Amino acid sequence: MWHQIFNFDNYGELLGLVQNSLYAGVLLGLVGGLAGVFVIMRDLPFAVHGISELSFAGASAALLLGVNIVAGSIAGSLIAAAAIGVLGVRARDRNSVIGIIMPFGLGLGVLFLSLYKGRAANKFGILTGQIIAVGTPQMAWLLGTSVVVLLALALVWKPLTFASVDPEVAEARGVPVRALSLAFMLVLGLAVALCVQIVGALLVLALLVTPAAAAARLTASPVLLPVLSVVFALCAMEGGILLALGSTIPISPYVTTLAFMIYLGCRLVEARRTQRAPRTALGSPGDPVRTHT
To answer: Which residues, 6+ apart, have CB-to-CB distance to 205 below 8 Å?
Structure first.
């Protein structure tokens, strides 16, 4: 059973084939870890899932039309992110918009894939991820889009943090809360499109939610939280690629399993810290990050 799943013969030679994927994993770890901090702070995991469905539809349409899949994925993600950002200002409205967009995007994606007559592996890769097919042109798209996301996050990091933690006070002090919210949704759309290329549309939450959620169990520090989130995302991403390289199973189960194990470990550490230092009226170091809806 073990040998049917894993085969690490000639592993060193195989590493050379996934060099681009390892670089892509570093980019996705950075993007997913940093964007995930705001996904947790702003309570947006459901939005990530909704955007990934439109990203799946865009990538499927591009596959059917024979054009760049990354461009199609980005187009679908941005359309979904803009719709959620514009129509779903309040949490209740946002969830309703996502609930409408998500099945629509999934249905479109299934339709496009059913019309596609090419290799079945291409269809499967959009849903569950792939590591071998990251070629130089796709790597250039990933690198360019990652730079845009990281620069955008760097520009809005401080006011977006303020607006995420206490939007009423931030708005009273002149912070453009609504504009920042829409800007972050577009950045999130780009981040989702990036992650879909490697882990697939079905499991993108493992990179954009789980690492930041795990880090939030350990610290509320505005410095340590993004650092730990990036470290956890990198461990899950690179570890998943290295395990999938010697296996017949796609990459996504490894990435999601590693991310889940990291989250469980953080919960255990938090529980032990809570037992040793009972909570006070001021809270404890293990208090999770505040979120708003």
So the answer is: 45, 48, 49, 52
Give residues with Cβ within 8 angstroms of 153, minimum separation 6.
34, 35, 187
Rounded to an integer, what distance in angstroms lies between the CA atom of residue 133 and that of residue 196?
13
Nearest to 255 by CA among 211, 197, 192, 206: 206
Helix (H, G, I), strand (E, B) or coil at 6: strand
Look up residue 210 and give its two tokens. 């789980």
Token pair 């964007």 is found at: 35
Query: CB count, 10 Å around CB of 49?
Result: 18
Summarised one tens digit per residue, pLDDT across range 155-183 is 999 999 999 988 889 889 888 988 998 89
Closest CA to 208 of 76, 80, 87, 44: 44
DSSP helix/strand/coil, 79: helix
Q: State pLDDT tens for residues 240-291.
A: 888 887 777 777 788 889 999 999 999 999 998 888 776 554 444 445 555 5
Are 183 and 131 within 8 A, CB to CB?
no
Closest to 46 measured CA to CA, from 104, 97, 87, 106:
97
pTM over 0.90: no
Structure tokens at 44: 């947006």
Tell me the pLDDT tens digit for each residue of 76-109.
889 988 888 887 666 667 778 888 888 888 888 8
Residue type, 234: L
State whether residue 10 is helix, strand or coil: coil
Structure tokens at 258: 């590693």
Report the C-alpha gap between 280 and 268 in whole angstroms. Answer: 20
Distance (Å) of CA 49 to CA 115, 228, 230: 24, 23, 20
DSSP-assigned letter for residue 117: -
